[in-house]
């Protein structure tokens, strides 16, 4: 029974750490996104008064249309690659960094945060390449 409590304690500790990271890093992203949305709303008021809705009629919108280039640039920077990197190079670099920063290899909180950045960057680049 004591073993069960130890396991449950570790699971709760892991969930707590994830929630803290989301609160720290996710909260700033949400605040920035809300700020950008507010600024875009104010800047687009003049467009709305002229009836410029041509951008809303695109039926073939994809993920690339909505993703900001700065996110993609940041993703390549996190992995230490240039934008001309092939899918094979991206995967190779991801594996290299994952081996270095994976929580099983490196137990520090900084390594966990870095691994989260690496995973997010890898996902962003894969979505860009595959779409």
TrEMBL record:
Transmembrane segments: 7-26
Keyword Membrane: yes
J domain segment(s): 74-130
Ranges of Basic and acidic residues composition bias in the record: 55-64
Pfam families: DnaJ
Gene3D superfamilies: DnaJ domain (1.10.287.110)
PROSITE patterns given in the database record: DNAJ_2 (PS50076)
Keyword Nucleus belongs to the record: no
Keywords for this protein: Membrane, Transmembrane, Transmembrane helix
Region annotation Disordered: where it falls in the sequence: 34-64
Regions of compositional bias (Low complexity) in chain numbering: 34-44
Leader sequence residues: none
Protein name per UniProt: J domain-containing protein
Organism per entry: Spiroplasma turonicum
